[in-house]
Structures
1.
Amino acid sequence: MATWVLSECSLKPLAPVIPRPRTGAVLSSTSKVGFLETNKVLEGSKFQPLRCNLRERNWGLKVSVPLRIASIEEEEQKSVDVINGSNGVEHEKLPEFDPGAPPPFNLADIRAAIPKHCWVKDPLKSMSYVVRDVIAVFGLASAAAYLNNWLVWPLYWAAQGTMFWALFVLGHDCGHGSFSNNPKLNSVVGHLLHSSILVPYHGWRISHRTHHQHHGHVENDESWHPLPEKLFRSLDTVTRMLRFTAPFPLLAYPVYLWGRSPGKTGSHFDPSSDLFVPNERKDVITSTACWAAMLGLLVGLGFVMGPIQLLKLYGVPYVIFVMWLDLVTYLHHHGHEGKLPWYRGKVSFIISSPFFSYENDWYNVNA
């Protein structure tokens, strides 16, 4: 073994010591002595040094590890070069994104791309989410009331406001019918959840359905439609500031429930509003009554625990919930980052207008 190491390192090994025969015989010049397992032989008393294959041996062992790993910036630049064809190979440049063009797919394509198991509605699983969130809401309120510490209240407001938003999302699923296949179960759970956060369930559900049916339409969309230039210019200063100047739009949702979007009349609480057809008015009355019952319950709690405690336990989390609702909805419906000009006549494009934005960022259509 030592001889092998020496041979691989280009060191000349010592000549092996061959004991003299006791009989006095002389070692023949033709005798051959094997040297370990190297298949090298000794002829006579002359030692044949082993050949060192250090330079010929492939020490890389063909392991696929690069000598140098490219940085993230180099990889990104390489990808850009490939797209732009600057790496020596001609590539067709990707077309620029046109926010006014219809998408290269339709609703059927989207449905086909969603796995079948995603369409299965499990009411037990849906109710488990409701139970979990309700327990979290009451647990947070109990803990905050017990501790009653100003170091705890800000943390409580942030957490409870987020949980109010979670209740809204579950009620939103009831309104879409994705909570379960049972319309009565959807209606009962939706009323309990939305009324607890002062949202008229059916009134909002119907207007939200209209929003999805006419998303981005200048006239028929309910809440996220591009404003015509004439209407936008006609808004008074206060309305324009409250609707399009941060942070006021983060509190726009209660105002929207009472008065709808600019240029539209009616209310989500009024069964005679043009938001609803005649056969939906009973549903709107039911939701408005549930909303009023929740408001009465809050007034009663104010007398029992005091208005300040009610404000800390419910009022501030409600404001945080409204801010979550407006912010998340804004992010869901925000249009292309570029600014679109005023359009005239019939223009076919899909775009969404947020509750709040700066005037120059508004996407409008000239009426």
2.
Amino acid sequence: MVPQHFYAPPFPYPADVQPYPFYVPPVEQFQNMHLVRPPMQPSWVPPQDLPNLQDDIRNQIEFYFSTNNLCHDTFLRRHMNDQGWVPINLILGFNRMRAFTSLVDTNYILDAIRGSELLEVQGDNVRRRNDWMEWLLH
């Protein structure tokens, strides 16, 4: 097969640049080529490869419901319903929880809380296990 040469037209501005020929391969040359894509690397680490992820999630949410934090956190206490429940979506909006929500879904986070001695889960709500009524704002 003989390469095809094309002639480039002269530039529209006056200069000392001379037109030059360039090579364009025929399309038929690429028709039977099979392109091999390199294997994709995951952009995030799967949860099973992070052994302490559930512990980190549970510890962070336990901190939000800890005595020391609830003494000062009127925002969280204002969002407790009359039974002390707080929607998990409210907690997932907190700055430190956003790091976890980019890795795992809400069910994974709720499963992490279920192992807590301080917290209990009902549906998509979380509260302190035993003394939730002391933290209600009346």
3.
Amino acid sequence: MSIRPLDLVTPTETFEIENGLSLVPRLRLKLTVFPASPSVTKPIDEWKVKRTLIDFLKTSLSVPITVPEEDLQIKRFKDLKKRKRDDPLAFGYLFIRDLSFIQKNKDEEEDLTAMEEKFLHWRRYIADKMDGIELNIEGLKFKLNVAVPVSDDFQGMKKAWEDFFVFGNRGYSRGGKQEPDTIVLRGVPSRWFAEPRVSSKPSMLVTHTIFSSFGKIRNLNVAEDDDLGKDATEDDSVIISGLHCMIVVQFEKYKDFYNTLKVLCCRSMQKEGSRLRADYEVTWDKDGFFQNTRSRLEEKGGIREIAAAHYRSEAPRHQREQISRTSPDDMRRKRFKD
């Protein structure tokens, strides 16, 4: 399929990629609920917090925003009796998926930069209006903290890697200016990156096909990721909705890394024919994933192990297919909930 140039994609439009996948824009905010008084130790009622916040979005913003209940996640922390006086009681995320209120100016042609500024303006506005509000739940008072998640703050990540390469004095480029080139993506369903009717485990070949449309790949690693959801809260009966995988992709060019990360930020992933929406986490690799893994394998004397662990973009097809079957069989499985 023909992929639209990444540097022309506005933050409010859906971006279709390979394998029936699409990146759908949304606004996400991280929520943390604190007690207004240190003496509050009673478990918080998540449902009533959700109803209070949904009503606030409808009535207290300059543009009323309707959020379905499933797009507002509130979960209480474990062991509230052991908490310190200033510790939060609950956390969660607010997703605003209908961005129709962020409209282009009809009187003038707005470019990409103008739309980006408008998107960021609305995110700041909603976050500022919600941050610090007092919630009165069953006679108990709580305070809400609202922030933009690190994974959704592209400009924040950009500043972080610029500072890192200036003060950290390390880079992954082959000579010249030190710049990041590797993206880490977590929280996408494994079966969306698997070979149909072959396995439910993520495939190197399928993953390479999807991400090579963003730019030329130097290295790629994909594996099942069971670390997500380890912070499950008490009374939380919902297990993570399916097998997830972690994808680490290293591009040949900084430009492709930059544009891909920017498009992945502030979006969720959907697959044609599925009701599941993957609200993944994305960041840049500052730990030298491929360098460190290669060093560990070389210490074990394993050129073949290196080939099995990482997909080289120049590898022939039969090697890719062999590598795609190397995922461990003993990984814990969770059932998808479409």
4.
Amino acid sequence: MGHHNRVFNGDPRSHLGYWGTPTSNANFCEEDYAVTLYIAEFINSLTNLAYVYLALRYRPSKSYLKLDFMSTSLILVGLTSFIFHATLRQTLQYFDDLSMFLLAGSLLQPLYCMNQSAHLRLLVSAVITVAISTMAAIYVRSGDIRIHMYAFAFMLHLIWPRTLYLIHSKSLNRTEGEKKVLMRRFYTAVGSLVLAYAIWNVDLEKCAELRAFRERLGVPLQWLFELHGWWHVGTAVGASEYIRLIRALGEREERGKGKKA
């Protein structure tokens, strides 16, 4: 996976952009400052608005002032990624990468705290906070993108098994109908994320061919083949669906608390 460090050179406008020559470890197949000298990667920046839009569309309350931690984290991913792709500065790449840690943690916490005692919830929350803070500090200190990649992948692999357990656990007595609805949402979320990952890798591995093809198409059709932008859209859909799934998993617990109150 060394291609996460790949920088696609040959962009004659890179040094002319408002933000100067890119300093980030990561760069992508969209040509720098091709649309405007004020935004380094125009399509890769704008497509991050999908995170913000879906976070607000599927917010837990009708009020925009009552966003939960998962929605807030998804919005932060969109905003930090927008700023990073717009500037391609290394410091802002860290903010983008660390927002991904925050989003993963916001999914892990409710999943592993669900149906637990108050003391165990506190312990789980503390462990997740310390672990993510430690990983973030190590990553920023080293600057090695592989640390971010492996840490984020590890967190993702803690999310889906717990989700499946909460759907199918006999102790939770879910009906077959409930399980089908939850699994449908699970497959939608995971399918969107896997498809987005595949598209992202095409963008990484076939950049020269994509650039040549886009040049033949011209504006605006060429924008449809900025595949890293589709990675943003796909992961926004997958993440927002997973957030809705986690909320659906916790509905029974919330109803139980309401009855006790």
